[in-house]
Structure formats: structure tokens, C-alpha cells
Design brief:
alpha+beta; 6-stranded antiparallel beta sheet; Uridine Diphospho-n-acetylenolpyruvylglucosamine Reductase, domain 2; 4-stranded mixed beta sheet; Uridine Diphospho-n-acetylenolpyruvylglucosamine Reductase, domain 3; 3 domains; Uridine Diphospho-n-acetylenolpyruvylglucosamine Reductase, domain 1
């Protein structure tokens, strides 16, 4: 019997006819995530420009091939079973540009355009050095610009959506779509962006004293370093904070009050430093993390009646139901 994975693999093999771009079959993508574990993808492609991405999207739509986009892998867990489909990584120079729009005479605001593949930390440091404020609240959050936009990443100091003027995408047929701030539908760890590919974004930043701005970046990063297990393998905050209408307590506090700090299943453990971080020790697996996610959710529901929603993305056939 031919498996679904075999069928998808054959379809993917036909996608690259006439296209010259790097790609690997049975590519181990789990090690590319911050967890550093998980299975392989049917294929991992590295298009060199938007035209190649558009061509791949059209062919995937015609062949009914699932498409995934891999950024920095910071907010992602790849199941041990791997991913059946085409994974696209926008790591070519064409997706790593930072462009400054001309300054408006007499104005304090500046627009910059950053490609989806730009490292968020690099963008924060670049704009801070140039005295452009707005992205510094995101200091210490590992992400690519595309991934950060997709989930509207942020924390106690603010989110990326608040300074995003427009998002530049490709739809499933490879056609360009430009969403305004309003059309992007930024909300807590959410956007309304349905397009499979984010090519980049335009940000509205404010001119300020670069010395004070760099000091602010260092201050925010130092706070996160002191309160979060940044040096360990994790995907950042595992669960979203519940709506304020349900409780004023964050997910980390609920997990802590349920007595779960230090709970360990296999190689996965609830961090002693911050309960909303599930860290993975050497030798641990993606399945260990998934089992710990289920255990934490069950215990928090049992003790508080509140069901936590995952913030991290989980890829793979075994992840579709993680309750």
C-alpha cells in the first residue's frame, strides 16, 4: 500500500522541474529549531528570490502539496514523526534586506522595510544604533521578522504589531498581497494573515536619542535574561496567557501555582526559572515535550478550570491533537 507520505513525496519531486534552487529531500528540520529535536521534512527548499517562492506556491497549489515556512525555529516544535510536505526557508540574501525610506522633512517618524528572513535581534540592534525607537520592546525575543509578524510576537513591553505599518505577502497562488496594519488584524499572539508566505514588513519607527535607546534595549534584554531560561533548549513561552476576562493571572503563574515547576517527563521539564517555559534536556525528544504539554494543561484545568492554549507551533502528523 502506498502511504500518503509517499504520494506527497512524488508530487514534490515534480515541483522543481525547470527551477534551479537548493532543496533537500528527507531534510532533518527538527535540529534547526531552538528545541533542537524532531523529525525530517519531505523536502526543504531554499528559494533565492520572491519569483521562485511564487512559482513553488503555484505548483504546490496545483499538486495539493502542504506548504510550511521555517523561520528561525524559535517558536516551533517539530514532531518526531516529521513533516509531510514542502518546507520553505527564506534564508537567501533577497529576504534579508533592511531598507530605510527617505526621512520626511520636519517629521520624527521613519519607515523601514525588513525582509522576512531578517533576524529580529539584528533588526532591533540596527534600528537602536540609528536612533529609531519602536522595536526595542522585543529585545530578547528570538525570531525572524516573518515569524515575528505571523504570530505578532511580544511580551510585557509591547508587540511587533504596534509598529507594523504594512505586511507584504504572497497568496497560495503566488500573487502579491499587501496588507495594511488594519487588514493584518493584529491581536494578542495572533494576526488575520491567511497568506502562506510573508515576504517582509514595513515598520513605522520614531527618531530618538540612540544612546538612551541602546541602554533601553540592554535593560529589557537583561530583565529577560534574569527571568527566563534563555540559555536552555526551549521554544519560548509554551502557552498563551488566558483572556483578562477569565483571569488576571498569566499562564506562567497558573502553572507555578499548580505546583508544576520542575515537573519532568523524559527529557522535558517545566523550567524552575519561568513556569511557562518547557525546556528540553540532552537526549530528550519532541514526544517528551508533547507529553509534558498535555500533562501541564490537564493539571491546570484540574486545579483552576482554565484550559491553556498553546502559543508554540507544532508541526507533524502526531501534533494535531495535543490535549
Amino acid at each position: 500500500m502506498v502511504s500518503n507520505a509517499d504520494v506527497i513525496r512524488r508530487r514534490i519531486e515534480s515541483l522543481f522541474a525547470g527551477l534551479t534552487l537548493p532543496h533537500d529531500f528527507d531534510a532533518p528540520i527538527g535540529p534547526l529549531t531552538w528545541y533542537g529535536t524532531g523529525g525530517a521534512a519531505s523536502c526543504l527548499a531554499h528559494p533565492t528570490g520572491p519569483e521562485q517562492v511564487a512559482a513553488l506556491l503555484r505548483r504546490c497549489a496545483d499538486s495539493d502539496v502542504p506548504v510550511y515556512v521555517l523561520g528561525s525555529g524559535a517558536n516551533l516544535l517539530v514532531a518526531d514523526t516529521g513533516v509531510t510536505g514542502l518546507v520553505i526557508q527564506l534564508d537567501a540574501p533577497a529576504f534579508n534586506n533592511i531598507e530605510y525610506a527617505p526621512a520626511t522633512s520636519g517629521g520624527e517618524q521613519r519607515h523601514i522595510i525588513a525582509g522576512a528572513g531578517v533576524d529580529l535581534a539584528k533588526l532591533i540592534m540596527t534600528t537602536a544604533r540609528d536612533g529609531l525607537a519602536g522595536l526595542e520592546p522585543l529585545a530578547g525575543i528570538p525570531a525572524s521578522v516573518g515569524g515575528a509578524i505571523h504570530m505578532n510576537c511580544g511580551g510585557k513591553y509591547g508587540d511587533i504589531g504596534s509598529v507594523t505599518a504594512a505586511v507584504h505577502c504572497l497568496d497560495r497562488l503566488g500573487q502579491p498581497v499587501h496588507r495594511s496594519h488594519t487588514q493584518a488584524g493584529f491581536a494578542y499572539r495572533h494576526t488575520d494573515i491567511a497568506e502562506p508566505i510573508i515576504l517582509g514588513a514595513t515598520f513605522t519607527l520614531t527618531e530618538t536619542d540612540p544612546v538612551k535607546l541602546r541602554d533601553r534595549v540592554k535593560e529589557i534584554f537583561a530583565y529577560k535574561k534574569s527571568t527566563q531560561p534563555l540559555a536552555e533548549h526551549s521554544a519560548g513561552c509554551t502557552f498563551k496567557n488566558p483572556p483578562k476576562s477569565i483571569t488576571a493571572k498569566g499562564a506562567g503563574q497558573l502553572i507555578d501555582e499548580a505546583g508544576l515547576k520542575g515537573l519532568r517527563l523524559g527529557g522535558a521539564e517545566v523550567s524552575h526559572r519561568h513556569a511557562n517555559f518547557l525546556v528540553l534536556h540532552p537526549g530528550g525528544s519532541a514526544d517528551d515535550v508533547l507529553r509534558l504539554i498535555r500533562a501541564v494543561r490537564f493539571k491546570v484545568v484540574e486545579t483552576t478550570g482554565i484550559e491553556l492554549e498553546t502559543e508554540i507551533a507544532v508541526w507533524g502528523e502526531s501534533d494535531l491533537v495535543i490535549w
